[in-house]
Amino acid sequence: MVGNAGTRVLCAMSGGVDSSVTAALLKDAGYQVIGAMMRFWPDGKRVDTFDTCCSPDAAYEARRVAEQVGVPFYLLDYREHFQRHIVGPFLDEYARGRTPNPCVNCNTKVKFDELVKKAKMLGCQYVATGHYVKRVETLHGEVQFHRGDDPRKDQTYFLWGTPRDALPYILFPVGELEKPRVREIAEERGLLTARKPESQNICFVPGKVGDYVAEHLPQAQGPIREIRTGEVVGEHLGTQFYTLGQKKGLGLYQSHRVRHVVHLDPETNTVWVGDYEDCLWPGLRAEGANYLLDLAELPAEVEVQVRYRSKPVRARVVEAGEHGFELEFEEPQFAVAPGQSAVLYAGDRLLGGGLIADHLRALPD
């Protein structure tokens, strides 16, 4: 880790084992650590939301860990910010027939934007988090983000939107560790979060995403059409309940035929379905781009990851501008979903990314 003894660091603590070990490692390295947790849950939170992370219980555990490590702890109120920048856009995206990833949005617009600003206000030189990401500083002093050493936990996919000017101020103490070792350190230190299970769900969504969307967006019956012929092959209750590639729960008239969702059109309230081959896309167009290098240095060929758990694939950069880019895949990709992130890499180095706006596929008239 960079810095000298006594350097002040704001450590983001979520009440989980990763951020707990992060605080402990920083303290051991001689940093002056200030623990902080961002409060997102509302006063009248539902019992079944914000339970594993970002909850009152998690805040209590984070405060206890801060006491164990021997650092001060503060709870920062970001409720209004979270509602405006995360929850609202999450529902808006589904209403537009897109599939959002709120964790990307949260890291971009809350954690690595607002938290860096707060750290500077508190006189901190750095912000540290428990993400499995490696901070690499070149001989020329440039700070880069690289994939974490634990391939099963790498979280660079969620950080493509980090403002480039914030990179020098961010530390990832567990980025060079594997998850089992992180838990071992927590056990050795006697941290109460050592065996705490990981958060898997969207923090503000109770149960299934579809049920949450149904609760907040109006249902509107419409046709399901065959992509090759335009034939009506079923009915739906709203485009917001579907995602590209989906083949289960379509309720088609000819239920024996395997069909995938290949396009969602909220303007005409139509769900388009087709064969597996109809859901293979030659490329994508992305908007809202953010680059972690000079645009002129972006390679002509990159690796791109179109969803968190997918393998990166090679792609040619057809066009890249300040606000977006267009890629052509080396091989067609299945179910490239608008609203998800297209994240760019050169080997392990994170180059940036954007929100998938279109999958470059023509529809029948």
UniProtKB/TrEMBL annotation:
Judged by the first EC level, this protein's enzyme class is transferase
Enumerate the PANTHER family for this protein. Answer: MITOCHONDRIAL TRNA-SPECIFIC 2-THIOURIDYLASE 1, TRNA 5-METHYLAMINOMETHYL-2-THIOURIDYLATE -METHYLTRANSFERASE
Top-rank taxon: Bacteria
Name one cellular component (GO) term. Answer: cytoplasm
**What gene makes this protein?**
mnmA
Name of the protein in its database record: tRNA-specific 2-thiouridylase MnmA
Q: Where does ATP bind?
A: A12, M13, S14, G15, G16, V17, D18, S19, M38, G130
Family, as annotated: Belongs to the MnmA/TRMU family.
Q: Where is the protein situated, by its record's location annotation?
A: Cytoplasm
Q: State if Cytoplasm is listed as a keyword.
A: yes
